[in-house]
Amino acid sequence: MPIDVPDQPNGAQLPPQPNDPPTLTDLCNALMYNHRLRLSHRKEPLYHSSFNFSLTCLFRSELELDCMNQNFASSDDVGRGVMYQAKLIQAYAGQDVEAPAWFAPALAACLAPVTRVAHRAYNLSCGDGRSRHFQVLPFVDGTLPTAEPHNLPALTNVDKVNGLTGPQATAYLAGYGLPHQQNIDLRKRAIRSEIGCTAM
Q1: Cβ distance 158 to 130 under 8 Å?
Q2: Same domain, yes or no, for 107 and 190?
């Protein structure tokens, strides 16, 4: 969907109509247009620093002509210019943007501690989990016990925890970073405590 240029402002010439989808040149045109508007608005001083100085020199003759005619950009003109630039940036950024392959696993690893705390807190309010099922608590590395490569049963209530076999309970202990227990009942107790199950 094409983005239209704003209404003709006082004190600055409109940029050319942008392409659909916008290009980097369109973004550059919007940036220079907004700089002209701010200079014409006369709210910011003309100062001599890097990029702003070169743009100030570039637009100085145009501004002097507008200033003689008392043709200043209004606050509304500046606001419309900012909105125009934001729409172009949003449209440009939305083109075929795909997260890199490493992003999803990295995000999952970063969110794992938060997810673990949230799920444990929720599970603490579920009692035995029979009426309101527990949330599956991710392992410390962010992976889910029910997904590959673990393929363990989902611990959605106290009965599921109590029904774990010895190897399954050991796998859960390892995934949660808990010390190994020889007795299976102690393993299940540690798992119940870890996931936020208050029932026995």
Answers
A1: yes
A2: yes
Nearest to 76 by CA among 9, 14, 175: 9
Cα atoms in the 13 Å half-sphere on the side-chain side of 166: 4
Q: Please write the tens of the pLDDT for every residue from 183-194.
A: 999 999 999 999
Q: What is the pLDDT of residues 128-156, one digit of tens each?
A: 999 999 999 999 888 899 999 999 999 99
Tokens of 112: 């794992």
61, amino acid identity: S
Residues 35 and 87 in one domain: yes
How far is residue 30's CA from residue 92's CA, in Å, rounded to a whole number?
Answer: 12
Q: How many CB atoms sit inside 10 A of residue 160's CB? A: 16
Are 3 and 33 a contacting pair, CB within 8 Å?
A: no
Domain count, the chain: 2
Say if 139 falls within a structural domain.
yes
- Give the containing element (helix H, strand E) for 104: helix 103-124
CA torsion, ordered 166, 172, 178, 181, to nearest 10 deg: 0
- Say if residues 155 and 131 touch (Cβ distance below 8 Å): no
